[in-house]
Write a structure and sequence with these properties.
It is built from three helices and six strands. The chain is 29% helix and 38% strand. The protein has a six-stranded mixed beta sheet. By secondary structure, the chain is α+β, with helices and mostly antiparallel strands. The chain is globular and about 45 Å long.
Length: 130
């Protein structure tokens, strides 16, 4: 699979997330998938993403920086949103912004591995949480 095809698949995956089509994730993600060194079944991965969408209803995945090398993708995803809650933190009084730095490995046209780092310090600072 060439880099243009990998990019198209990746952008399709983000569209799927932004449109909340979690039942379609199997088109883009292997079952199982390795997420931050944890092997997850597709249903578990869908639940993880559904939880994020429930906690942050206006969550949109916007590409800030995208690098593709063969079957690997590196992306800085920028978020501006209003969390109701997020990983145990309090509700945001207004919009906040933060980034996720994420690395993917594609296999056979679908995501097989995800390594994700969310800038929790930026979220905490905006929410006034130490």
């Amino acid at each position: 699979m060439g880099e243009n095809a990998v990019e198209a698949r990746y952008r399709g995956y983000l569209d799927c997330l932004n449109e909340r089509r979690f039942d379609d994730l199997g088109r883009f993600v292997h079952d199982p998938v390795v997420h931050n060194d944890r092997r997850l079944g597709l249903a578990e991965f869908q639940d993880l993403l559904r939880r994020d969408a429930a906690e942050i209803p206006d969550l949109r995945y916007e590409i800030g920086l995208l690098v593709i090398a063969g079957d690997e993708v590196a992306c800085r995803i920028d978020f501006e949103c209003t969390p109701k809650s997020f990983r145990g933190m309090p509700r945001a009084e207004g919009r906040i912004s933060f980034a996720e730095h994420v690395f993917y490995r594609f296999r056979e046209g679908r995501i097989a591995r995800v390594r994700s780092l969310v800038d929790l310090d930026a979220i905490r600072a905006q929410l006034g949480v130490s």
